[in-house]
Amino acid sequence: QVQLVESGGGLVQPGGSLRLSCAPSRGTFSTYAMGWFRQAPGKEREFVASISWSGSSTTYADSVKGRFIISRDNRKNTVYLQMNSLKPEDTAAYYCAANSNPSHDFAFRLKLVYDYWGQGTQVTVSS
After folding, report:
1. Is the distance from CB of 123 to CB of 12 less than 8 angstroms?
2. What's the rounded Cα separation, in Å, for the pair 65 and 114?
3. Do 16 and 112 meet the contact criterion of CB atoms below 8 Å apart?
């Protein structure tokens, strides 16, 4: 069983930046495809960004494209989400997810392919 731990959330002013991190509590995820999702109160959990196990492929939701960057360091066993030019509508709980058996080296957008999830970290964008 893989347990994912997110960190880096907090309160930031509009236009500011935050970097989220995700690491497993034990083991390694160097062969896992990874993703970030978010959920605002009263809304469905939505895709934000994902990265293939090698890091060669990434994909983003249109709402964050050009502002957020997903990356991974398999030596440090950590996935990052760099969030720039934050907007109030980015306010949500952010969840890290892992696909432990990816069919190929691909960045997946669908929630259903991810079999492990973190507990989430809150990001609040407000002045």
Report:
1. yes
2. 21
3. no
